[in-house]
Amino acid sequence: MGESPRELVKQFKPALRFLGVFLAVYLVGNTLYGVWIQHLNPAADPITVFVTTQTADLLSLVAHPVEAVRSSTKPTVHLQFQQETRLVVYEGCNGVNVMIVFLAFTLGFGGRFKSMVWFIPLGLALIHVANLFRIMALYAVAIQFPKYFYYTHKYLFTASLYVGVLLLWWWWVRLNRVGHG
Predict the structure, then answer these.
(1) Rounded Cα gap, residues 102 and 171, in angstroms
(2) 156, 165, 126, 159: which is closest to 138 by C-alpha?
(3) Single pTM value for the model
(4) Angle between helix 96-109 and 158-176 (nearest 10)
């Protein structure tokens, strides 16, 4: 007959470990973040404010003066030029969820602790920088090509951020594959 459940668990132990760690980190991370942002509602959470303020500062350096203005009634931060809102940044745009997915995969896959000590902070920083450029690009699309905003926000720029995360994961797997020096 077939293999016993114990033999199957033993055979698939690495995959089950990955799934267990991935799901635990993902669920705990998203739950804690969700509780935190609900606690702050209707104010925007500090991470969204931080990301939007950094985006405004970068846009002010490369384009024209942009201000990050918190909404008083919603958990959003507005990017404004000459006191006119050009882009509204919501909590989901701050990159935290992408960072949680990256962290869950990296910890789930496992690897040498010494590698994790530098790889995880580097990966989080790269995701943050990529997200800043994504929001800057969305700001430009909102001004220059508003009819394409939905498509670029929903698909193009979101996909490009996740492709970056996939490349980080590929790098992590290559760094930690069995038999690799």
Answers:
(1) 12
(2) 156
(3) 0.90
(4) 20
What is the number of helices (H) and of strands (E) in the chain? 7, 3
Indicate the SS3 state at residue 70: strand
State how far the Cα of 6 lies from the Cα of 116, in Å rounded to an integer.
31
| Residue 154 token pair | 């929903």
How does strand 67-70 pair with strand 76-81?
Answer: antiparallel
Q: Tens of pLDDT along 152-176?
A: 999 999 899 889 999 999 999 998 8
Buried b (16+ CB within 10 A) or exposed e, 73-112: eebbbbbbbeeeebbebebebbbbbbbbbbbbbbbbbebe
Q: How many CA atoms does the CB half-sphere of 49 hold within 13 Å?
A: 12
| Residue the block writes with tokens 């995880």 | 120
Pair of tokens at residue 115: 């590698």
- DSSP character at residue 76: E
At residue 55, what is the residue type? Answer: T
Pairing of strands 67-70, 84-90: unpaired
